[in-house]
Amino acid sequence: MLSTLCKSLCKSLAISLISLFSINIAFANYASVDDFVKDQKVIRIALDSGPGFGDQAASLNVMSWLRSHGFQGWFEVIYPDEITYKMKSLFNLPYVYISALPTTYEDTVNHVRLIKQSQFESDHDNGKVIYYPLGISGEYETDPCAYYAEGDTKVGCEINARYADPSVPYTYHNFANYFNVGNFINVGVWNFKTNMSLIYAFDQVIIKQLDVTNTYFNVPQTTLAMAKRYLSQDANGKNFLLKNPALLDLMSVIENQTVNIMSIYGLTIQNGGQGGDFIYDVMEFITAAHYAQLTGSEKFHHPLIIPVFYDYTEECKILTEVIKKDDWSHVRSTETPDTRKAILQKVIKDLNLSTTFSTANLSDPDLSQKIHHLSPYEILLVSMGPLPKVVFDGVYTYTNDNIWPQVREGESSLNSLLVTGKPNIRCSWSLWELPWDNWITDNDLKNRLHKLFGFLNNANGYAEGGLICRGNQSWESNPDLYKDLARLILDASNPDSAYSKYFQRLKIEASKPENDRINRALTEALQHTN
Fold it and tell me: What is the C-alpha to C-alpha distance for residues 484 and 377, in angstroms, rounded to an integer?
């Protein structure tokens, strides 16, 4: 497994195409990718164990893509034992399995078979594992072993190297699911060396490396209506709603536009997450939001709900202590804490946040009442906790006039948001992933984005600039950063602004069939294996 630092820089999804007998057999006689997908009986998925990097969700998104292109067979999902607790929300499991999931579980309705990695390894040891023509690995690895249908490094490398027939070539196909990891598609062949068991016991032959710049993951979009149907019609959805009754009230005010919404999701805003003190990152958006309320037109005066898509209970307590009581005793500090603290204290006081800000949990029994009794200029931050994926996607990607730019960290989230055509804001130490220099003619906006998000200096190859979510330096570098962020929020509400037009252009590019990266990857594989 890659280190946390490397994974945060190298996130992606790998897709492997494996033939048991010859590189000319697996895809022979298929006229198209859809023909191949429709003909498969089993597709193997391997999830990784990394927390918060979006790789597991990315695998599920590709599963949705395969279903939408005609796959009706079984998904065999191999997952590390330590993420068993995530299976409930990822795969909509009955609540009986919240703590004890069998080593092999079959969902006969959706044709999904879940297998713990320990069980899969045991099956491998006993010669019971069958190879399938198509497998998906849910993480990016510099080690090419990870591109096997078994996926994760331990399963994909150690087991395959120990048990694979050295005379059998395996075709593979991998490509980056993200945008700043290098744009490439590889098609090649593994040939295992005889009598060697090390994870590098193979020769790699690259047939072709294909540039996939300006290609995207066109995964089926989950809507708020789909999330509501799940909550009202699915047994697990009904059970979830019983424990979180305010969810429907939240959806109601989202749809009837009586409140504004600014959704936040990403490691950078979690206590102990990526970067420096979380509070300096999340406070950029809280202060920017209130400044937008105070300086924007009448529609910005409406109360604002900020759903944070984690169990944010601990962070809510710290935020309340800081904003309401000026109590910083639970804020961990790393660099120049006194300077940052003084700047943020002044901004909180100038904006009078102590009288307008509050927090809640989605499961709070009085949350519905709070939602319906918010006053103008108020901000309510809601800890959403772990959600079923259909609910998360439906709420997080919903767009309307009252939906402010979603705040995100990962590029997997970007894939889901691109098709909305609406602006979003990245909260990450990394650069903005997609180009704007050639797509934005407004020099003022271009300079603002360079200042806020940073950019790659082609002259020296280094990243430069960037203020958003650099928790250890943002506030010292620009005490008025929140005002610049507020301006983006205001610009996003105007469909004719240069900022909005940039995202409209992204939607057009991402929606073109020829720019569908999954289809492009599988099409390339067919060209080399037919």
Answer: 19
Nearest to 438 by CA among 216, 213, 217: 213
96 CB contacts (<8 Å, ≥6 apart)? Answer: none
Cα(512)–Cα(501) distance, rounded to whole angstroms?
17
DSSP code at position 192: E
Q: Which residue has the tokens 């697990």?
A: 236
CB-based burial, 417-447: b 16+ in 10 Å, e otherwise: bbbbbbbbbbbbbbbbebebeeebeeeebbe
pLDDT digits 0-9 by tens, 60-105:
888 888 999 999 999 988 888 888 888 887 888 876 655 678 999 9
Say which DSSP state 414 is in. Answer: H
Strands across the sheet containing 112-116:
14-17, 134-137, 42-46, 74-79, 112-116, 104-107
Beta-carbon contacts of residue 88 (< 8 Å; ≥ 6 apart): 95, 97, 98, 101
Q: What are phi and psi of 207, to 5 degrees?
A: -80, -45
**Cα distance between residue 409 and residue 412, in whole Å:** 9
| pLDDT exceeds 50 at position 12 | no
Q: What percentage of the chain carries pLDDT values higher than 70?
A: 70
Beta carbons within 10 angstroms of residue 337's beta carbon = 16
CA–CA distance, 306 with 205 (Å, rounded to integer): 50
Helix axes 235-243, 224-233, angle to 10 degrees: 90
* CA contacts within 13 A on the Cβ side of 446: 9
pTM: 0.82
- Find the farthest-apart pair of alpha carbons in the chain and give their distance in angstroms, rounded: 73
For the cut 60, the answer to whether the pLDDT of residue 160 exceeds it is: no
DSSP per-residue string spanning 46-82: E----SSSSHHHHHHHHHHHHHHTT--SEEEEEE-GG
Helices (H) and strands (E) in the chain, counts: 21, 18
Count CB-CB contacts under 10 A for residue 154. 17
For 290-309, write each residue's pLDDT tens digit: 999 999 999 999 999 999 99
Distance CA 152, CA 136 (A): 10
